Amino acid sequence: MPMKDEERDMNGLEAYFDAARAERAAPSADLMARIIADAQAVQMAARSPAPRRRAGLGEQFYRLIGGWPAMAGLATAAVAGVWLGTSLPEGLLGPGEAAYLVDVTPELAFDLAGGDF
Amino acid sequence: MPFDAMGETPDEALLVLFANGDGAAARVLTQRLTPRVMAHAYRLLGQHAEAEDVTQEAMLRLWKQAPDWRQGEAKVSTWLYRVVANLCIDRRRRMRSVALDAIPEPEDGRASAADTLQDRARAEALQAALDGLPDRQRQAVVLRHIEGLANPEIAAIMEITVEAVESLTSRGKRALAAALTERQEELGYADEG
Predict the structure, then answer these.
(1) Is B54 helix (H, G, I), strand (E, B) or coil?
(2) Are B101 and B56 in contact (CB under 8 A)?
């Protein structure tokens, strides 16, 4: 397009922009009402605190014993107990020390084996 | 704060009042911002019903954003123009299959300033030409030449440089001029204005 024509067209656009400004689409009363209703709903939701959830039995026990520090102590004790139970006989008692062990329930072992005195 | 006393209160301060549960602030913000949001959405979409949906959604996002609004970082209007543009781009992607001829004319809310039939015809022709522009060009042209914003503010809204805004508006105006000239020739009349 020659420069002069382009310039003329660009200037002509101003009339269209003016017309567009005059023909501004306005919101309906219904839309305004919906927007205010949304605003009130958001304000109401912010005002009311979140509902409290009822704690389950497990959670009540957890709180009763004192929360995570107590649970950590219990877990440590349990792990230590398992370790002692599984590692002590081999780790601490050699064949010599085993001789000092006294079986206090020999009858039970005999009964289990189906024996007869 | 009473409703009447809020006329001069800046949008950002009203938003803080809104977040504190002030009902009057909600009404003032709605009355002040909604017409601008609606007009912008319509110019980007060309459809009245869709523009109303976008307007409601943009305002709802503003309400939800209010408690986290960071003072001094952005103007409420800048933030809203950006949200409206993003919502409109999403809508237009979904509306691609709708033919331009099927787009209904605005049904209500016409400004009383529709002085002449020629003005109305021009506004409708411009809207049709705007609908044919790429999204970013349309947004830049509307913000600059219809909303009347300055290039730095448009750059903030579109998150681009001022030079990029100038380039978009320049290309958009050239495309509009070409489309409108073509339309005049199709209709068999020459615009006097």
Answers:
(1) helix
(2) no
- Residue B114's CB is within 10 A of a number of other CB atoms, namely 14
pLDDT tens per residue across span A20-71: 988 888 999 999 999 999 999 999 998 876 666 666 777 777 677 777 777 7
In terms of DSSP H, where are the helices of chain B? 11-19, 23-45, 48-65, 76-95, 117-131, 135-141, 151-158, 162-187
| CA dihedral sign, ordered B131, B135, B139, B140 | negative
CB distance from A12 to chain B under 8 Å? yes
Summarize pLDDT for A81-113 with one digit per residue, the tens: 777 777 755 555 555 655 565 666 666 666 666
Q: Tell me the C-alpha to C-alpha distance, in Å, between residue A80 and each of A84, A86, A87, B70.
A: 6, 10, 10, 53
Q: B58 CB contacts (<8 Å, ≥6 apart)?
A: B37, B41, B80, B83, B84, B87
From A16, A22, A25, residue closest to B38, measured CB to CB: A25
User: Shortest Cα distance from A5 to chain B (angstroms)?
Assistant: 10
The CATH number of B1-98 is 1.10.1740.10
What the block records as the tokens of B142 is: 């509307």
Check if the beta carbon of residue B25 is closer than 8 Å to that of residue B14: yes
Q: How many CB pairs under 8 A join A and B?
A: 132
CATH label, B114-188, candidates 3.30.1490.20, 1.10.10.10, 3.20.20.80, 3.40.50.300: 1.10.10.10
**Min CA distance, A4 vs chain B (Å)?**
13
Distance CA(B55)–CA(B42), nearest Å, equals 9
